[in-house]
Write a structure and sequence with these properties.
29 residues, 2 helices, 90% helix
């Protein structure tokens, strides 16, 4: 479980979700 947290692929996916949510929040304003 914790190995998945440290994997680059997991961080990249988290970054994609974060950027997507940030883009939506900026678009809604």
């Amino acid at each position: 479980m914790f190995n998945t947290w440290d994997s680059p692929s997991y961080k990249n996916k988290y970054r994609e979700i974060y950027n997507f949510n940030f883009y939506r929040a900026a678009s809604n304003q």
